[in-house]
From TrEMBL:
UniProt main location, coarse: nucleus
GO cellular component terms, A-Z: nucleus
Lineage: Eukaryota, Fungi, Fungi incertae sedis, Mucoromycota, Mucoromycotina
Keyword check for Signal: no
Matches recorded under Pfam families: zf-C3HC4_2
UniProt protein name: RING-type E3 ubiquitin transferase BRCA1
Annotated compartments: Nucleus
Organism: Rhizopus microsporus
GO MF: ubiquitin-protein transferase activity; zinc ion binding
Length: 316
């Protein structure tokens, strides 16, 4: 096996190895910043410090990644097929033909996967549902039945198109928050491009946004959408909130109302305030004794998980 084959396997190994134990990941687990580690490795690290070993981002949740485990299992089979115990060691026997075979087999598998996904989309009946799409910036011309653009976020919006990275992770925005709370499909730009290419609405599942850059992969858009389909109460249903001294008061208010909550001038439940200096926080504590004072990040983080997070972690 030549250096070319070794380089291919080397690159694959680096993508799939845990940066803590430097071995192939076991029970791959993603954290808030989207970095991945072995489940046991990251749990051990969290006992020492609840931050990412690579970027020092605060770890708020762990997310199992079964799809990555499947890829790792296939990679192990590939190493066995080419009789490689360690991709960093170049065996004495080598063959250019083996290199070509390995690279070709990888390309074929990728092409087969892409073809299978496209065939699946093409085999499905054309969806007749109404699509009202919110997209910022340039809007391509649409000649697809039942698909129209809208200019503002409202309860009639069915789809939100956002720019995303290769992991379908997006930046946080009010549009993203409201899209989750309204139970919209939140998809990447490739979905819209492929709809236009094929002339009809295609399934959204492989294009759906999986999380944001602060919390990582949370699956919040899908969880919120399924919650709406099941006609379950929205995230903030019944929650009474008073918003004070907040530079993002209007954003917070929109999110609370969209999630089924109630905004009051004065309430006994929850008071949301901005991330002010410690000196001002003490003033608020003295002013609102025996009340629950929370930072506004509790609202936004709860939306991005589509789960009411522990208030204790956000108390003043």
């Amino acid at each position: 096996m030549t250096t070319t084959t070794n380089s291919v396997l080397d690159a694959m190994q680096r993508e799939l190895q845990c940066s803590v134990c430097m071995s192939l990941m076991k029970q791959p687990t993603s954290i808030s910043c989207a970095h991945m580690f072995c489940k046991q490795c990251i749990e051990t690290k969290m006992q020492q410090k609840a931050t990412c070993p690579l970027c020092n981002h605060l770890i708020k949740q762990l997310h199992p990644m079964p799809n990555i485990q499947i890829i790792i299992d296939e990679f192990i089979k590939l190493k066995q097929e080419y009789q490689v115990d360690d991709p960093f060691i170049d065996p004495a026997s080598s063959s250019t033909e083996e290199d070509k075979t390995l690279i070709t087999s990888l390309d074929i598998k990728k092409a087969q996967a892409r073809a299978a996904l496209q065939a699946q989309e093409n085999s499905l009946p054309v969806q007749e549902k109404e699509c009202r799409i919110l997209k910022k910036g340039h809007k391509p011309e649409l000649n697809i039945p039942n698909m129209t653009f809208v200019d503002k976020m409202n309860t009639e919006v069915t789809h939100i198109v956002l720019p995303a990275d290769k992991h379908n992770i997006v930046d946080r925005s009010l549009t993203y928050y409201l899209g989750i709370l309204y139970g919209c499909f939140i998809v990447n730009e490739q979905w819209l491009e492929n709809c236009i290419k094929r002339g009809h609405i295609i399934p959204e599942s492989r294009y759906e946004i999986s999380g944001d850059r602060e919390m990582g992969r949370t699956g919040a858009p899908e969880k919120a959408r399924k919650n709406k389909e099941a006609k379950k109460p929205n995230l903030f249903r019944g929650l009474k909130v008073c918003i004070i001294d907040d530079d993002l008061q209007r954003q917070v208010e929109k999110c609370i109302l969209a999630g089924g909550g109630i905004v009051e001038d004065s309430c006994q439940d929850v008071i949301v305030c901005s991330d002010d200096p410690e000196s001002k926080r003490q003033e608020l504590k003295d002013r609102f004794t025996h009340r629950t004072l929370l930072l506004k990040s509790w609202i936004f983080d709860s939306i991005c998980n589509f789960e009411l997070l522990k208030k204790d972690d956000y108390c003043l």
